[in-house]
Amino acid sequence: MNAKRIGLSAVVVLLLLFLFIYPLDAYVSKPGGAYDLEPIVEVAGGDENDVGTFSLMTISIGKATPFSYVASKFSDRMKILPIYKVRREGENDKEYNIRQKKLMSDSQFNAITVAFERVGIPVDITYDGVFVVRVLTGGAADGKLEVGDKIRKIDGVQLTEPGQLAAMISAKGLGDKVKMTVDRDSEQKDIELVLSAIPNQEGRVGLGVEFQEDRELSTNPKVNIHTAEIGGPSAGLMFTLQIMNQLMDEDITKGYNIAGTGEMLADGTVGRIGGADFKVIAADREGIEIFFAPDDYLSEEIRKANPGIMTNYEEALKMGKKIGTKMKIVPVRTVDDALTYLRELPEK
């Protein structure tokens, strides 16, 4: 009898482990939290006598388990995401995290430049090498370069301007050797590779990488943004507003607790992001009073090709109605839309 009980208990334990721990080839997303930006965004000598708050919103994403997969079918607060919507093909944990941090870094860059431009303070932008975004399997750089490498030199020549890397590589041919100096994990490394055909690009020869030309930003006053483990581009709009609030003497929050989401593009446009609906749930839970949501433009062609697709604002508004929030959900296409709304907002 005892042996049967032990055996039954073991089966139950194994079943529970399978249901709650076994990882599926998919992800589950949930509402995250709200983070007050006052301790995160630091503008040297900036105005800190503000009553209201600007907050960034997050969603939680983790590997789906059999339990969470089934539970998501019965809950508005869980959503299953196919793996291709979260990770690129072949992308490992390190590469995924580097990409998310890079998206966050670019979001901060645009937030700072847009905020300073709107306030009328110039910034200094300089070229800062070439950032490796992706290494193609089977390409010349496969096993040589890594995602996150910063290319500084080609054949001993320092990269100092946009287009220089592409021009130097295009002047070479199949089988030519390339020596490069890269920054990797706070160290400088010399790497040699042989140019080969670019995978899935018939007739083209090159490094076999996707890259982004990097820039370094210098401002006066200096801006530091402490984001710890938060990744992705979706805090851009809120970073912009928080930076402006510290650069200006007035409190543009008007005393309200304000949150929102949206990537900040270089021209001040607020870009579409994922998880707007779950961020509304989190904002409502955290007592946010006003929520900015990207009112991204969707053409008729896009809507016909993707039945049921909604703008971030439409997603947010739908979820707000579903949960019965009293929070005001505001559509914005540019940072100027948010600023106009705040200017017309009465003091609390």
From TrEMBL:
Active site residues per record: 234, 279
Catalytic activity: Hydrolysis of proteins in presence of ATP
A biological process term (GO) from this entry: proteolysis
Domain PDZ residue range list: 119-186
UniProt GO molecular function: peptidase activity
Broad EC category: hydrolase
Annotated keywords: Hydrolase, Protease, Serine protease
Source superkingdom: Bacteria
Pfam families given in the database record: Lon_C, PDZ_2
Lon proteolytic domain sequence ranges: 229-345
EC number(s) on file: 3.4.21.53
Family statement drawn from the similarity comment of this UniProt entry: Belongs to the peptidase S16 family.
Protein name: endopeptidase La
Taxonomic source organism: Sporosarcina highlanderae
Taxon lineage: Bacteria, Bacillati, Bacillota, Bacilli, Bacillales
